[in-house]
Amino acid sequence: MANAANLMLAAILAMGALHFAMMVWLYVSRLWAMKQAGITTSTATYATMRKLPNWALNPAANYNNLTEAPPLFYAVVIVIVLLGQADPLFVALAWLYVILRLAHSLWQSLINIISARMVLFGASWLVLAVMILRAALNLLASAYP
Q: Which domain of life is it from (predicted)?
């Protein structure tokens, strides 16, 4: 099971890499849009930043989204590993979560049609909920054999 645990922990690292990539994307797109709009970092205000085009705002909005549910994912994965519950199904669920969050990030940053984004967001939460429920049931089963 050590390999399953490592694969689950690798999913956390993949989410961290996604978060880092979105931070770079938000800085590059925001600075580029600010340059085009004649806004400098010393003159930027919340009001002027809100006027930037969506292609510059969407990556920042997604970066913020990555600070919401993914930290719970990190905690759940760590708990599963620490409890010794890591198995192929948990590995598959963890990586499915990462894939859905990657798809959500790309969709929100590039296309941002809300209805499709909601499906990706909801699906990632469903996967996370299954992980939480399964881990809790496993824990209860081991406490009351």
A: Bacteria
Give residue-wise pLDDT tens across range 84-112. 999 999 999 999 999 999 999 999 999 99
Within 8 A by CB and 6+ apart from 101, the residues are 15, 18, 66, 70, 124
2-143 CATH: 1.20.120
Q: Which has the closest alpha carbon to 62: 1, 99, 20?
A: 20
Based on its alpha-carbon atoms, the radius of gyration of the chain, rounded to whole angstroms, reads 19
Q: What is the pTM assigned to this prediction?
A: 0.92
Structural contact between residues 18 and 102, judged by C-beta atoms closer than 8 angstroms:
yes
CA distance 124 to 47: 32
In Å, what is the CA distance from 65 to each residue of 3, 6, 7, 41, 69? 30, 26, 24, 24, 7
